[in-house]
Amino acid sequence: MSYSFIWDMDGTLVDSYPAIVPAVQEACAEYGLSFTADYIHEAVIRTSVGAFLEEICTENGLDPTPVKAHFNQLNDTCISAILPVNHAEETLRALTSEGNTCFVYTHRGASCHKILEQTGLISYFTEIVTALDGFPRKPDPAAIFYLINKYSLAPTRCFYVGDRSLDIEAANSAGIRSVLYLDPSSPIKATGNETFVVSDLIEILSIISKQS
Prior knowledge:
By secondary structure, the protein is of the alpha/beta class. It contains nine helices and eight strands.
């Protein structure tokens, strides 16, 4: 029996926070806002970069639009340093070789495809949904429903894999199972709303082997 996996990208498939956090820090500093790297890391993983910048700009009476634009510019210059998460390719290769299908749904925009290409992961995905597709941001499940409907996926055989609580909320709202990836350095804690929790993506293979 085959399954479908919808994946978040940043922090789940690729270790992009070492590039994201300094870009957020520099973008904020450009507008007179100073935050530690640890503070930014915890804030963006709990929500998102966009939500964090919206919040801190509102609190400080700033227009978030130029701050976000500056962040995007800085972030795009750092993507060559982004590497795949440990065992990401091995997990994707094993899943797809057994007839399972994989998709990406990420808030990242145009740089998504370039990152997946440079990390050697892009060939494993049937479709990649990015911010450019115009769906509401997670935890809204609209993009998940789009993939389910387009590819006639059975919700009972779908999983969403992500590293943040909003990924889990999106999966739950779509009526599919969720896998929370908790890297040992993550400030996120499991809440019990997840179907599964893994500390290494390769553990997903064991989860699948136990499904009936």
